[in-house]
Amino acid sequence: MLLDEAVDAYVGMLAVLKAHAAYVPLDAGFPSDRLSYIVSDASVRMVLSLSRLSERTRDLAAGAKPLYLDRVRSRVAEQSPERPDALAVGEPPDDLCYVIYTSGSTGRPKGVAVGHPAVCNFVRVASEVYGITCDDRVYQGMTIAFDFSVEEIWVPWMAGATVVPRPEGPSLLGAELDAFLRERRVSALCCVPTLLATLDENASELRFLLVSGEPCPQDLVTRWHRPGRRFLNVYGPTEATVTATWSPLAPTVR
Predict the structure, then answer these.
(1) In this model, does residue 61 exceed pLDDT 80?
(2) Segment 88-112, tens digit of pLDDT
(3) 223-253 pLDDT, tens per residue?
(4) How many Å apart are CA 158 and CA 128, to the nearest integer?
(5) Nearest alpha carbon to residue 232 among 174, 171, 155
(6) d(CA 88, CA 82)
(7) What's the chain's average pLDDT?
(8) CB-side exposure of 128: number of CA atoms within 13 Å?
């Protein structure tokens, strides 16, 4: 999937999985050689994209057929809204859910294949541990090409919460992100500590915070800790399905 609009990406992921296929998330900002390598290495046969990104799909590996969603929307709208039956989609060939590529220790992207049992287990446990509820509005700011986005998307969906994608364009931080979170009434944020450090803790209405991806300084914990706010630090390599460890953060915890 090579998409630069969040809603298309969400719909694409759900559609691929309902068809008993597996998805390989790509980022339109990736260099062309990285995109080509991933598509070739993962033996991708179809690339869901948009026609305005056709230049990015043109040089992908042979055999990877692009399907531009904006060109088939009318055909999609004509389809039945009912869930496809087993005969229409066929039996799943395996338990594969997605393949996400990391930087790799050699500098060459390394594909990590994650199965449905692992993802389902993570989403079920994380939704319970994090305490996300159907009343929450969760900011989704990470590219789907990184597994951190699984935390931002699938866990809220499991809880029946609302996912609030970042606007198109450069990533938000500082006062711009503060304003966006307030305007959209976001109550839960998952991010790296570096991003959290740019925000104003006194202007925030967040009730849930999760930091990951890098060490969280103690002074940042002190700044953001509030009674009634759940503040977690999590860690996990992609191979362990997003998150392997978690711990609540408080000024007295080091």
Answers:
(1) no
(2) 777 777 899 999 999 866 678 899 9
(3) 999 999 999 999 999 999 999 999 999 997 5
(4) 10
(5) 155
(6) 12
(7) 91
(8) 5
Measured CA to CA, the distance from residue 193 to residue 213 in angstroms comes to: 8
Question: What pLDDT score was predicted for residue 105?
Answer: 60
Rounded Cα distance, 210 and 233, in Å: 6
Give yes or no for a contact between 33 and 109, defined as CB atoms under 8 angstroms apart: no
Residues whose CB is less than 8 angstroms from the CB of residue 222 and which lie 6 or more positions away in sequence, other chains included: 251
Q: How many domains does the chain have?
A: 2
Return d(Cα 115, Cα 233) in angstroms, integer: 25
Q: Where do the DSSP E strands lie in the chain?
A: 46-49, 65-68, 96-102, 110-115, 137-140, 162-165, 188-191, 208-211, 230-235, 245-248
84 DSSP 8-state letter: P
Domain range enclosing 42: 6-93
pLDDT at 202: 87
Helices 116-130 + 148-159 axis angle, to 10: 70
For residue 63, the domain's CATH number is 3.40.50.980
With residue 134 as reference, give the H or E element that holds it: none
Indicate whether 189 and 83 sit together in one domain.
no
* Residues 6 or more apart whose Cβ sits within 8 Å of residue 125: none
- Residue 104 included in any domain: no
Asked whether residue 178 falls in the same domain as residue 235, the answer is yes
pTM tops 0.70: yes
